[in-house]
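Appendix B, example 12.
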Amino acid sequence: MKKWPGALIKIGVNNIIDEDVILGYPTGRAIAETELIIGDSCVIRSGTIIYRGTCIGDRLNTGHNVVIREQNIIGTNVSIWSNTVIDYACKIGNGVKIHSNIYVAQYTVIEDDVFIAPGVSFANDKYPLSDNLQGPVVKKGARIGVNATLLPGVIINEGAVVGAGCVVTKNVNAFSVVVGNPAKELGNVSDIFPDNT
């Protein structure tokens, strides 16, 4: 691994960090806290870049070529797979699984035990080039299907399922299933997936 010169980095124990990982990459933004903190027993694979000013809990597991920007707070037992970008100032809870080729926009909140399938996009700018950025909020245990798009500020409530290819333009009720573009409620998770709730 390469530690960026001058970066403040605190790394826990029992980590596996590939040789061409870059830690403590500088940001072009003025931030108050610049130390990068990485917990114990993490696996960080080749091509990954983690900026300074982020705090990561124990047992992070990355794929290849992951980018984690500054000012992120990431919990324990989180998986972030290959070619995914976590933009700055996001909050990610414990036990979250973020698959490959995903863009998580600034100010997104992802709570505990969320699953995000490949190719999902999070947006945060309702009127492009606005200074009023608001990322989506994904509540505990929600599941987001392949290639879904979550528009700025939407809330995916607890236990909801967002179908593949959905464009989510408004809040999704707890334990509901939504499909389509724009996303529309199909029913309750327990009715549609009775053996998988």
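DSSP finds one helix and 27 strands in the chain. The two ends are 41 Å apart (CA to CA).
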